[in-house]
Amino acid sequence: MDILSLFVVVPVLIVLALSFFAKDLKQARLISVVGMGIQFAMSINLIFAYLKERAVNTGIMVFTKDVVWYETFNIHYSIGVDAISVVMIALTAVVLLAGIFISWKIDDLPKEFFISLIALSSGVFGFFISTDLFTMFVFYEIAVIPMYLLIGIWGSGPKEHSAMKLTLMLMGASAVLSVGILGIYFNSNADGGALTFNIFEIAQVNIPEAAQNIFFPLTFIGFAVIGALFPFHTWSPSGHASAPTAVSMLHAGVLMKLGGYGVFRIAMYLLPVGALNWSDFFLVLAAFGVIYGAFGAIMQKDLKYVNAYASVSHLSLVLFALLMYNKTAWTGAIIQSLSHGLLTAMFFALIGMVYGRTHTREITKLGGIMKVLPFIGAIYVITGLAYLGLPGFSGFVAEMTIFVGAFQHPDMFRRILTIVVVSSIVVTAVYILRMVGKIMMGPLSNEEYKDLPKATWFEKTGLILLLIPVVMIGVLPLGLSEMLKESIQPFLERLL
Amino acid sequence: MNLESFLLMRSEIGLLAILILLIIFEIFSNKKQKAAVIPFALVLLAINTALGFLPLASGELFGGMFKTNALLYFFKTTLSLGVLILLLQSADWLKEKVVDENKASEFFMLIISSLLGTYFMISAGDFLMFYLGLELATLPVAALVAYDTYKRVSAEGAVKYILSSALASGAALFGISLLYATTGTIYFDSMAEILTSSNLSILAFVFFFSGLAFKISLAPFHFWTADVYEGAPINVASYLSVISKGAAALILMILLFTVFKPLIEVWHKIIYIVIIATMFIGNLFAIRQQNLKRFLAYSSIAQAGFILLGLMSVDNLGTATIVYFVAVYIFSNLGAFGVVQAISSFSNKENINDYEGLYRTNPKLSLLMMLALFSLAGIPPLAGFFGKFFLYTAAASQGYYILVFIAVVNATISLYYYLLVVRAMFLRQSDTAIPYFRSPVYMRLGLILAAIGILVAGVYSPIYDYIFSISNTFLN
Amino acid sequence: METIIFYILVAIIILFAVASVTSRKILRAVIYLLFVLIGIAGLYFLVDYNFLAAIQLTVYGGGIIVLFIFAVLLIHHVELELEKTALKKKLIAGALSAAGLAVTLWAISTYPFPVTDTYTSIEVADIGLLLLSYEDGGFILPFEVISVLLVAVMIGAIVIAKGKKLTENN
Amino acid sequence: MIAGISIYDILTLTSILFFIGVYGFFTRENLITVLMSVELILNASAVNFVLINTYLYPDLLQGAVFSIFIIALAAAETALAIAIIINLYKLIYSVEVKDTETMKY
Amino acid sequence: MDFSYTILIPLIPLALFLILGLFSKKIPASISGWLGSLGLGTSFALSLYTAYHYFMDGKLEGVYQTFIYKQTWLVFTDKLHIDLGVMVDPISVMMMVVVTSVSFMVHLYSRGYMHGDDGYTRFFSYLALFSFSMLGLVMATNLFQMYIFWELVGASSFLLIGYYYTKPSAVAAAKKAFIVTRFADLGFLIGILLISYYTGTFDFQDLTSQEGMLIAGWGASASFMGLSVFTWGLILIYMGGVGKSAMLPFHIWLPDAMEGPTPVSALIHAATMVVAGVYLVARLFPAFYFVDGGFALQVVAYVGAISSLVAALIAITQTDIKRILAFSTMSQIGYMMLALGVSKYEGHEGLGYMASMFHLFTHAMFKALLFLGAGSVIHAVHSNYMKDMGSLRKYMPITHITFLIAALSIAGFPGFAGFFSKDEILVAAFENNKLIYYSSVLVAGLTAFYMFRLYFNIFWGEDRKYKHTPHESPLSMTIPLIFLAFMSIAGGYIPFSQFVTADLMPFEAHLNIPLAAIASSVGIIGIIIAFIFYKKPSELSKKFSNAFGVIYTFIYNKLYFDELYLFVTKKILFGIVAFSASWFDKNVVDGSMIGIGNVTVSVANKIKGMQSGKLQDYAMSFVGGIVVIAMVVFYIWIN
């Protein structure tokens, strides 16, 4: 078994182990935490293995493997990673492990909860390692569908409605995406070769411009919906608000990144001409989404809604950066994906902890929580500051890289858009501080909150797991950004 | 004609033998032994199915009236396997309700004879055999629909079915007669050579097509479906939705790809419209159903629309994707119907509402139901996903992207109503949930077989590759 | 002469067909149907398909019509009048049938049928041989199939008929 | 071959017969009469086969044989249909079309 | 010469922050205070050593050299990258001394002031964080590093203002400070983007070098609304400075920021962070001066002048002693700004630059002293309001004397530090811009007046009925007062023009006696008026203020700036933009997505009648289907 396939196999094995051996919550979480711990260790190992391999391997992807799956369609199980996938895998592993810690006390159907969560993760891991369109699409859908159960069974509030909306919008998008993928597939022999789903083989082909113009928007929208592109983002606030903590974490932290990743890896790479032709249109949407999401977050009353709109804003920024076709902006986009993944996961974890204790997420009802929950409060403030782009945390590095990169575009229109987008940092500060100030600071809003239980060890572990990479990226970004840039280069060359 | 070539009809002879054995059994068994017919028939059919995995040569018999080739043979085996699963799932129902009324062996006889008709229909080399096969496949089922003789809905359903199908076969027959008028032959091969596009041949085709469309339940020829499924015993509805629909889809494809190839311009347009209408109608009606049989009826209508996508690609690809999808669809639908059957025979409950909280009492059944529904909806890594995706591929290969787009939109709508059932089973909790029960062994076997099909048929690619490799056996 | 007979037969067929589908007295409708069938048998005689005509008369006249009559008698009094069909339904049905007929006739009329002068009369023996021949053009296989079919239908009919008369349900 | 009568006349006749059957199927209020309309439809096709065979393709007897099978089949179908209708009658004491509408939407 | 050890100056506070922050629960208060003070003391000592070392040996052929030690931190493009490092040049060395000295004093002082507070250790960790950030800012080698630390000081300011986080007003003030400066920083960031896009560098040396793209190439750059984009870039960068230094119109956060503990106000909102804007302009001075004929510098000058005047006027009317000091700070920073604004580049021409830096230095000392003194007073009477104070000289002699020294210094009383630095500013203004000069002289008088209004109200006047008899603060608090008092006098005698100049070449600066006389007499007049009004309780001031009526109210309410901002943010941004965004999202965007679903379901309900359950309807649709398909096909066929 190769180093990459294990990322899919291990979750599957854990799912099997869970379904056959887990009897109660204790066993279920033990199996999950051990399994995901292994997965996490594997992802750390992968980073080093990648760096080692990269030194001797100059291919776009390393650790490649190719097994014919459906011969007639030329579908292969072909895998490989570059720096981008590696960091995404690491992100997934971290968030997942943290999520399992956060779900330590899940009481309703614990076994099923962990099964769904881990099944979902296998899709995510598979998605990040695939280099075959079809395989990738398969994993993509595997990653989306367990969300329905996760939100629907373990969620709160109008969970059925939210779960349905989320699932349908995402699956609708993936349906659109499938048309795009077919379009790419049937144009992959434009230069006279065989039809193929292999991304890197298609990249050798110049798909006719007319086809690109049709299939780029399909592919782009297909992926961008999960990346919360305006106006297809509305599944995200209600979905996140209803989802249980770990699921919100995983979804906002990892799943929404599939969108940007897909756009980058497929839509832009395979349909470069279409991408250029459509870029202005989507750029305006993305820029609008940045500002719009930020303003949307200001007026929300529910903490999770605030965070969900914040995610819309931050992920639109990712799409915005991707549409800039610039190495720096792209690096920024990927760092932003990472950073947002970690930070938003932290936020959801914290919100979950507050909610678990106070049983409310209404900003107006909460206040002065820091006094009674100092650890959670402190981390909340730190997360907030990191989220609004304070230097020393990953968010700053990501945003600055995007802004500087985007501003390097020679086109005036894009630079003006960049300035518009930059101004979102103020709005971000407003809603973050409003939230932090209201719920963590100020006088205690309710006497009943006086004796809230302090953070437990597993909650602390989960949070610290997430905080460490945030600080690491924030303090020492150079290695990461150089590693990413190297991998971005071939993709950029395709566009320019 | 020697014995060896005669054995080309091995599948049919097998079924005929089973039929005769069953009749003999019925005649010579006393009242107490009647119940033994269930294992007896199952074993016989299992043997016949197992024999179906032995290779068989291609060839023609009776002056071209009977054809067989690897694809047809594969398909027959699949159908046989489907019927076996279906009978396993019905065994419990038969034991409890039917044996008492002393008509269990007749049930088998009717199913087997209908299956035999299906075989002859798809193996037909001329319109007469086709027509007889069609009727042989249809008429026993009409009797089966009425099998719940004490239920009004069953009787009503049977009436609707027999009369509607009489009209449909009348229309098809009229179409065949007009085709005969334009070509002077009832043999497929010679007709394919002679047939040209003319007003009359088109009209004849439309008449003929309506008859098959009726069997496949394509809009606007589908209306009987929901009522008949609802009225019929669950296993009969299941039979209608998988076996007769699948076989009809196959023979429609064969005829369109061979006999009606000269009319390809015309039937492509017709199919295009029909696909869209069928998918929308099936989906929109399915959304608001409460009765699961009715629900699955509409779902199967929508699925029929998907099957037809493969027709847009008149080549290996189209053939293979259709056959593959039908095979996958058989497993998925049998899974879904099997669960409905299991629950209905335990609790007599068939409504979606009744399924609320099912997961907490019967996790395995709920899980299988979810797998089956997700497979129907086309969620990976279940077989249905591959089936659907390949059908899209087939349609897209001819540039019908808009059609594919409409199809994916419909797939999303269909996901909605499949999720409604999942919602009831998993998300809801209910005090009146169906309590835990353990299904009898036949039922479990039937369900497990269906589950294996759902899980394996997609991921395990050699199945599709095999189908593809044999799918050109009837195309030139 | 043949022409005249043909037209008489046509008149019989169409008139009684119409009567058969409109008559409100059910038994009369059955009898009208019988006349239609006889008219069709007449057509067969006219083209010298005597064997077919005979089958038509025996199977239809002797079998099916009797079956109908039995059914009617089982269910109704002989004089029972059927309910009147709503006019709207009639109009829609009529319009639809007329439209279908128009399309069909138009399609037929635009088709250039070849005219052949060859004429062969057929013997019962020919048909018998054909039915039992397994060579090219033989019909032994359909013959076998239809026998299975008849058995199956018979079983089906018996099974349905032997269902208990339940008084407790409905 | 009937002197003075062309194939078009024959086909017109059978078409009319077919659509009379269809009309009957649409309008009859009684299941048995509906079944009778089906007989007209089937007969139209049977006549078609026979006369087309005679008029156009007299070399082979495909049409004629086909119509024999149609007649046999019609008989079988009718028998089964009547059994089913009587079965319904046993349950609800009616064979009206409008009494078969409990399942809808 | 090797100055690489200067890196330790910021790193020591950073280490302190990490230790105190991570183990804030574990470390007892007794240790953390000492630890902090010790650390900052070390930094201070290092800074002093650096200053000595640099100003003695740092010259090469009469020009101060710049020493840079840096490490690449993040690479953006081939040209643009962020380095982190230290830059040792006259102003950074001076700022190091200012920051570490005041910080050290504040640390010492806080040990007494914060005694017994719950978050004692947390407080010291924040202070350490701030010191680190501020030092990083002043030692920045490039624009982006400065921006990074600029943000960090903003955040530590946020934390420190909101230190009493259970107090809603403190939280509000912290938020306000952060958001207002953040908005200003937006300008800074865009300015950086603009400048770096056209020049391809962030580096201060490249940006300020005469041959650099910015100065040599501005003429060739694109222009926008008649001004070079470089000018726009500089103005935007200056916007960041305006925000941080609380100039008009971004000054509104500063008075509110007084909600923080008083030592914090002394450190951040008087001596160090708020002068970052001045420092920023000084850092980029050549660029400001040369690009577009110094247009951006004019902006700096006028913003400074107006701010200083307005702030002085408002200060007269306030009653909260910390707010008075806050407005005073604003006014004095305006002074520094205008000094920079009127300065030229070379030699004696660059007097304004030198004066600005000089004033920055002396101001840091006496303003820190004023705040710490005020803190001492507040500590004693537990109130911020003048009405609760009076005759405190009897109870708090040391505080009284040191406060008086500081007040005299800020009022420009001859012989005190403020006198010298202010005089240089007035000279520079007089030489370059008369209008600004007159306004500055007026401000000098106003300053003296409000300072002594404050002084007399606190230490003289009526003896209030104190609940607890006020007593002198402990030694830990008075020692810093004494040190700073010393500096408030002695600071003026440092020959600044020898050390800090625009073109890095020392020059001789002389006291301009006539101008000094005018200024100090204006100041003395202010003191005398204050003496008359407030030495003894009298109705005079009240009558006087009543005489101004509306104008007084207008000024008392700080020109209604707060209300204006509140209107813009609450009503327009929140009420209209954000509200309509969320409404739009919920009803239109989400509504249309849900609408698709609802339409589908309602269509499904509408068409249910098709499935009527009637056999004959089905038959009709069957035949109808045939006919329609046939007709459609024929229609296509015929055409």
Q: How does this model look, in words?
A:
In chain B, 72% of the residues are buried. In chain B, helix 4 (70-98) packs antiparallel against helix 19 and helix 14 crosses helix 20. Helix content of chain B is 75%, strand content 1%. Chain B has helices at 3-6, 10-28, 37-51, 70-98, 104-123, 127-145, 152-183, 188-194, 199-216, 224-231, 234-257, 264-287, 292-309, 316-347, 358-361, 363-377, 383-397, 401-427, 441-459, 462-470, and strands spanning 59-61, 66-68. Chain B has 476 residues and is mainly α. Chain B has 20 helices and 2 strands. Chain B has one domain. By secondary structure, chain D is mainly alpha-helical. In chain D, helix 2 runs antiparallel to helix 3. The model of chain D has no long low-confidence stretch (mean pLDDT 89). Chain E has 639 residues and is mainly alpha-helical. Chains in contact: A-B, A-E, B-C, B-D, B-E, C-D, C-E, D-E. Chains C and D meet through helix 1, helix 2, helix 3, helix 4 and helix 5 of C and helix 1, helix 2 and helix 3 of D.
Layout of strands and helices, then pairs:
The complex is a heteropentamer of chains A (496), B (476), C (170), D (105) and E (639).
Chain A: H1 5-21, H2 25-56, E1 62-70, E2 75-81, H3 83-102, H4 110-129, H5 133-144, H6 146-154, H7 159-186, H8 199-202, H9 209-224, H10 235-242, H11 245-270, H12 272-298, H13 303-322, H14 327-358, H15 369-372, H16 374-387, H17 394-407, H18 412-422, H19 424-439, H20 457-475, H21 478-495
Antiparallel strand pairs in A: 1-2
Helix pairs in contact in A: 1-2, 1-4, 2-3, 2-4, 3-4, 3-11, 3-14, 3-20, 4-5, 4-6, 4-11, 5-7, 6-7, 7-9, 7-10, 9-11, 9-12, 10-11, 10-13, 11-12, 11-13, 11-14, 11-21, 12-13, 12-18, 12-19, 13-14, 13-19, 14-16, 14-17, 14-20, 14-21, 16-19, 16-20, 17-20
Chain C: H1 2-22, H2 26-46, H3 50-75, H4 87-109, H5 124-132, H6 140-161
Helix pairs in contact in C: 1-2, 2-3
Chain D: H1 7-27, H2 31-55, H3 62-92
Helix pairs in contact in D: 1-2, 2-3
Care to give the gist of this entry?
The complex is a heteropentamer of chains A (496), B (476), C (170), D (105) and E (639). Chain C has 170 residues and is an all-alpha fold. Chain C has helices at 2-22, 26-46, 50-75, 87-109, 124-132, 140-161.
Strand content of chain E: under 5%
**Contiguous runs where pLDDT drops below 50 for at least 5 residues of chain A:** none
Write down how many β-strands of chain A occur, each being a DSSP E stretch of 2 or more residues.
2
Radius of gyration of chain E: 30 Å
Number of domain modules of chain A: 1
Biggest beta sheet attributes of chain E: 2 strands, antiparallel
Enumerate the strands of the largest sheet of chain E in spatial order, edge to edge or round the barrel: 1-2
Oligomer: heteropentamer
Global shape of chain A: globular
Of all chain pairs, the largest interface belongs to: C-D, 83 and 74 residues
